[in-house]
Design a protein that fits this description.
By secondary structure, the protein is mainly beta. It has one helix and 17 strands. The strands form three sheets. Strands 1, 2, 3, 4, 5, 6 and 7 form a seven-stranded antiparallel sheet that branches. A five-stranded antiparallel sheet has the order 10-9-8-11-12, with no helix packed on it. The longest helix has 4 residues.
Length: 187
């Protein structure tokens, strides 16, 4: 059990027999009354989002999860296929469970898979990742308004807004949480 006031972003909780992860946490201390926390929780099985408010002294059941180092093998359209890098066992998880992460994942790359009671709950992506641009429209001459951007597609199918000087075949650094362009990578 954990007190609601001690919950942080990224904490895993068990609510009504379902595992949830804390996506956002806000501590509120009103002028009158007891302090409380507003949480945004994501159900790791269904993707459902809850936004409960709890008194800081309320108890919530915290679950212990483990991180497995796994290599992402491929996506067959219905399942993501992984291999545990310690035991070399292969397993699969439904694409629907990780739709928000699929476009950031590269075949052959290693990721941490969060597991609870032998059930993969989450995939930890690096905060920033390098991608190769596979499709980019050409910049129009004279289109140089400050901050002008265009949409490009990277190797995984992810679309990102980038400055107009970025060309097809170049590498860019993308923030995987915000889905935003960070910088061009020269390698």
């Amino acid at each position: 059990m954990i007190k609601a006031g001690a919950i942080d972003k990224g904490t895993f909780l068990l609510i009504k027999e379902d595992p949830y992860v804390v996506v956002e946490r806000e501590f509120v201390n009103p002028g009158k009354g007891a302090a409380f926390v507003r949480l945004k929780l994501k159900n790791l099985r269904t993707g459902q989002v809850l936004r409960p408010s709890m008194k800081t002294q309320d108890n919530v059941e915290e679950i212990q999860v483990t991180d497995k180092s796994c290599q992402y093998l491929y996506n067959d359209g219905e399942s993501l296929h992984f291999m545990d890098t310690d035991t070399f066992e292969q397993f699969e998880v439904p694409v629907a469970s990780f739709e928000d992460k699929v476009l950031f994942m590269k075949d052959g790359q290693s990721y941490k898979v969060v597991v609870w009671e032998n059930e993969p709950l989450d995939i930890k992506l690096p905060l920033k990742e390098i991608y190769v641009i596979t499709e980019a429209e050409e910049a129009i001459k004279g289109d140089t308004v400050t901050g002008a951007t265009k949409t490009v597609t990277v190797e995984t199918g992810l679309t990102v807004k980038v400055p107009i000087f970025i060309k097809q075949g170049e590498k860019i650094l993308v923030n995987t949480e915000t889905r935003e362009y960070v910088e061009r990578v020269n390698t």
